């Protein structure tokens, strides 16, 4: 089993599909020639991606009377909500504390956060290699001075902190949207009465 094997996107999708069907991490690891930990990480990353991008994976079916349906349509029209599906989705998200205004915005923010983390990790690796070169005597030139190493570490810290700030910004925005949704749902409930 090679430690340096990188899974392709197609392999990752196949792992997720087969795990849902009940294939164990150990079996998948053997077949794809990676560690079981890699399989678990792949599954966790996919679950986080689905949560971050609000990928719909479940369906709700509901039977109501004609009067209830007419009242729902009236309230949705008054609230400016175009479809019943969107109205129910907003209700469910607000009730579950997971209100997401825009799935596309959430996906973009997740990509930005991931990109910032990748850049920060890359900068940290550069600083690590510079420090290693200094230890073995290859970094006697000015580019590898302690000041440059400190600057690289500071840059890595800045980038990783920026990713954390972005995450905090998204969380605060969700909380604010949840409060707005709760207020709208109260109106929604009172309008139906």
Description:
- The chain has 193 residues and is mainly α.
- The protein has two domains: 9-52; 60-193.
- 74% of the residues lie in helices and 0% in strands.
- Helix 1 crosses helix 3.
- The protein is flat.
- The termini are far apart.
- The model has no long low-confidence stretch (mean pLDDT 76).
Count every beta strand, where a strand is a DSSP E run of 2 or more residues. Answer: 0
Q: What kind of sheet is the major sheet?
A: none
Tally of helical segments: 7
Fraction of residues in helices? over 70%
Structural class: mainly alpha
The low-confidence runs, each spanning 5 or more residues with pLDDT under 50, are: none
Characterize the overall form: flat
Q: Report how far apart the termini are.
A: 64 Å
Instruction: Name the helix and strand elements from N-terminus to C-terminus, one letter apiece.
Output: HHHHHHH
Q: What oligomeric assembly is this protein in?
A: single chain
Radius of gyration (CA) equals: 24 Å
Beta-strand residue fraction: under 5%
Count of the separate structural domains: 2
Mean pLDDT: 76
């Amino acid at each position: 089993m090679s430690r340096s094997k990188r899974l392709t996107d197609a392999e990752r999708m196949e792992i997720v599909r087969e795990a849902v069907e009940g294939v164990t991490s150990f079996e998948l690891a053997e077949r794809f020639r990676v560690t079981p930990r890699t399989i678990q990480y792949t599954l966790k990353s996919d679950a986080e991606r689905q949560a971050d991008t609000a990928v719909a994976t479940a369906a709700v079916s509901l039977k109501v009377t004609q009067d209830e349906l007419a009242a729902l349509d009236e309230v949705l029209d008054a609230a400016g909500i175009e479809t019943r599906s969107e109205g129910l989705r907003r209700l469910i998200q607000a009730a579950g504390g997971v209100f997401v205004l825009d799935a596309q915005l959430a996906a973009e923010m997740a990509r930005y956060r991931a990109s910032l983390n990748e850049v920060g990790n890359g900068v940290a690796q550069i600083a690590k290699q510079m420090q290693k070169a200094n230890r073995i005597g290859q970094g006697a030139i000015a580019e590898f001075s302690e000041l440059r190493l400190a600057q690289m570490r500071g840059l890595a810290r800045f980038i990783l902190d920026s990713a954390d700030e972005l995450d905090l910004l998204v969380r605060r925005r969700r909380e604010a949207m949840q409060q707005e949704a709760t207020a709208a749902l109260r109106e929604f409930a009172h309008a139906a009465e």
